[in-house]
Amino acid sequence: MSLKDKGYLFVYGTLREDTKHPMHRVLTRYAIYVGKGTFQGRLYNLGRYPGAVPSKNKSDRVSGEVYQLRQAGRVFELLDDYEGKLFKRERAIVHLPAGNKLTSWTYLYRGPVKESGRIRNGDYLDFLANR
Questions:
Q1: What is the per-residue pLDDT for 131?
Q2: Is residue 98, in this structure, part of any structural domain at all?
């Protein structure tokens, strides 16, 4: 299977499997887990959830999971509503551990961020485990 031109979604926060959030069921039902990945961005703690923003600094990485969408229309219908107006679905280049890259959808935060809320290692699961 080629990774090119498939419908992918990169998730980095409450939609990751290990958060056990009920909305992860959308991915369980309508997507196939591809693996772990990162994208060039910065991650911030926004309280009950994180928000990622793009970064020009190549060392800034957000960790997450990649899913291949079986029913992209249904997934986006549900997740666009869940993410709300503070997040915008955009395309991002995601790096996979084997060195492959793919273009994936992800939800980026559109609100203001405070540097004091930055999750420096870019991994929300690690942040939850260590707070």
A1: 86
A2: yes
Distances from the Cα of 78 to the Cα of 32, 71, 84, 107, angstroms: 16, 11, 10, 13
Domain that holds residue 99: 8-129
Residue 29 sits at φ, ψ, to 5 deg, of -85, -40
Residue 3 counted as domain residue: no
One-letter identity of residue 81: D
> Of 26, 44, 27, whose CA–CA distance to 110 is shortest?
44
Alpha-carbon 11 to chain mean position: 2
Give the Cα separation of 116 and 76 in Å (integer): 31
Q: Residue 1: pLDDT above 70?
A: no
Domain count, the chain: 1
What is the sign, positive or negative, of the torsion defined by CA atoms of 115, 116, 122, 124?
Answer: negative
pLDDT category at 42 given cuts 50, 70, 90 is very high
Report the pLDDT value the prediction gives residue 37, as an integer from 0 to 100. 98
